[in-house]
Amino acid sequence: MSIDYSQKIPNNVNLSNDRTLQRALEHWQPHFLDWWREMGPHDFASADVYLRTATGVDAQGWASYGAVKMPDYRWGIFLADAIPDRRIGFGDSYGEPVWQQVPGEFRSQFRRLIVTQGDTEPASVEQQHLLGHTCPSLYDLRNLFQVNVEEGRHLWAMVYLLHAHFGRDGREEAEELLARHSGDADKPRILGTFNEPISDWLSFYCFTYFTDRDGKFQLKSLAESSFDPLARTCRFMLTEEAHHMFVGETGIGRVVRRTLQVMKELGTDDQQALRGQGVVDLPLLQRYLNFWFSSSLDLFGSEVSSNAASSFANGIKGRPDETTQYQDHICTDATYELETPDGKGGLQKESVSLRNAMNEVLRVAYVRDCEIGLKRWNMQIQKAGHEFRLKLPSTRFRRSIGAWANVPTDPEGRIVAREEYERRLPEWLPTPADRTYVTSLMQRVTEPGKMAGWVAPPDRGINNLGLDYEYVRLS
Ligand SMILES: [Fe+2]
Ligand SMILES: [Fe+2]
Predict the structure, then answer these.
(1) Taking the chain, what is the end-to-end CA distance rounded to the nearest angstrom?
(2) 270 Cβ partners below 8 Å, 6+ apart?
(3) Are 188 and 180 in contact (CB under 8 A)?
(4) What pLDDT is recorded for position 3?
C-alpha cells in the first residue's frame, strides 16, 4: 500500500476511513510538534537539511531525498505490507492465524511493551538536543538530524498502535510519552540508558552503535509478534534503524582512522602526545565503548525472567529471526545454562527453562552483532601495525540489572573485591578528565567538506553526493 501524503498525517493505513482515530491522532499531532520544537534539535528549526523521507514501504520505494526544514518533516504512520495468511510463529498458539486486534487477556502486557519501546524514541532525541551545536561536519550534522526525525517517526509508530488498539488508556499513554523527559528528576524516561546525557559526538557514535542496536534487537523480536499490526510496524522501523547503526559504526571507524593517522605522523601512541594533536587515543575510546556497551546490556532485562517467559508463551515477543534461526518454536521442554554469581565471590551453574531465559537469548544475539564493528575497527588497527585491540567488556561488567547487578567484576568478567573495582574504575570507564578532554574537542565545523580534527572523513557522501555537498544549509 502506498503512502498517502495528501493527508494531514501521512499514512498507509487508510486513516481517513476511521474518523475517530484520525481525529484523535490529529489532536495529538500539535502536542508532538510542540514537543519537537522544545525538546528536539536546539536552534536548527530554519535550517534546510538534506533528509530522506519514506515514499513507500518496499525496498525500492523507500526514500526520497531533498532539503527539508525539520519542523516540516512529514512524520507519519507507515506499516510494512501484510504477509498473506501469516501464522503465529512461536509460543503456545504456534501455527494459529495472527491477530489483527489485541486479545483482551494480553492487553496490559502489550501496552507495557509498546509504551516502553515508544518511550525510548523521543528520549534519544532529547538526549541529543544540543549536539548540533558542536557538529564535526555538515555531513555528521545531517546524519544526526536524520536519526532524530526518524526517532520522532518511531514515536508516531508506537502512538498509532496505542491510539488504534488501546482506547482511552492508549491515548493517555500517548500523552505521557511526551510528558516524560530524558534525565528529568521528576519524570525521567523509563529505561536507564535513555537518561544518560549525550553531550559529545563520541558518545553519540557509541550510542548509535550500541543503544540503537539494542533497538534493532527489540524491534526484531517484536516484528515476530502475533499481534500483526505491531509486527508490521516494527518491520518498517527496522529499515530506518539500519542507518542509525551505520552512523555509529562508521563514526567510530572514522575516529579510529584519524587517530591511527596521527599515531603514524607522530610515530607514537603516547596519550599526551596524541591529545596534544587533538585526537581520541584508543584507550580513551575503549573506555567509552565499555560505558555504552555495559549500559546498553541492561536494556535486555534480567537473565531469568518470568515476564520474558510469558511474553514468549503468549506470542507477544519472539526471538530475533525466530522463523529462520530456530527449529523449536515452542520451547516448553528446553533448558538454558547460565553462569551466575553464587553470592560468595564464586560462580554457580544454573539450568533454567529456556522460556525464562529469553532475555538472555536476545542479549547473546545482540553481543554477537556488536562484535562485527569491533572486528572492522581492529582490522584497521592491525593493518596500521599496532598491537592494541578494542574489546567488548564481559557482559558481567558494570551491570545494574539481572544476576550480575552490582557484582564488582573487571572488564574480563572476573569477580574482584569492591575496593579494587572502585580503585580501578578510572582504567575502565571515562574519567572526568577524559570527558573534559573529549568536550574540548567538540568544536563546531560547518564549512562544506571540512571535518573536525578528531575524526576522519567518511568514505562517501549521502545518496551519491560528494563530501563537500552542503548537507545542511544554515540560515
Ligand atoms: Fe528508533
Ligand atoms: Fe534508532
Answers:
(1) 37
(2) none
(3) yes
(4) 84
Q: How far is the CA of 176 from the centre of ligand 1 (A)?
A: 18
Q: How far is the CA of 207 from the centre of ligand 2 (A)?
A: 9
Ramachandran region, residue 374 (left: φ > 0; alpha: ψ -120 to 50; beta: rest): alpha
Q: What is the pLDDT of residue 475?
A: 76
Strand partners, 338: 350
Per the CB < 8 A criterion, the answer to whether 8 and 29 are in contact is yes
Cα separation of 142 and 52, whole Å? 10
CA of 394 to the centre of ligand 1 (A): 26
Cell triple for 210? 550500541
Ligand nearest, relative to CA of residue 151: 1
279 alpha carbon to ligand 1 midpoint, in Å?
Answer: 30
pLDDT, tens digit, 9 for 90 and up, residues 96-154: 999 999 999 999 999 999 999 999 999 999 999 999 999 999 999 999 999 999 999 99
User: Which residues of the chain are modeled with pLDDT < 70?
Assistant: 1, 59-62
DSSP 373-420: HHHHHHHHHHHTT------PPPTTTT-SSSTTTT--B-TT--B--HHH
| pLDDT in the model for residue 63 | 76
Residue 59: predicted pLDDT: 65
Structure confidence at residue 428 (pLDDT): 98
**What is the number of the ligand closest to the CA of 212?**
2
User: 10 Å Cβ neighbour count for 460?
Assistant: 12
State the CB neighbour count (10 A cutoff) for residue 71. 14
> Which residues are close to ligand 2, an ion, with C-beta < 5 A?
212, 241, 244
- pTM of structure: 0.97
**Predicted local confidence at residue 74, as pLDDT:** 94
| Apex 387 CA angle, 295 and 249, nearest 5 | 40
Report the C-alpha gap between 212 and 220 in whole angstroms.
Answer: 12
User: Could you tell me the CA-to-CA distances from 59 to 42, 153, 432 in Å, in that order?
Assistant: 33, 18, 45
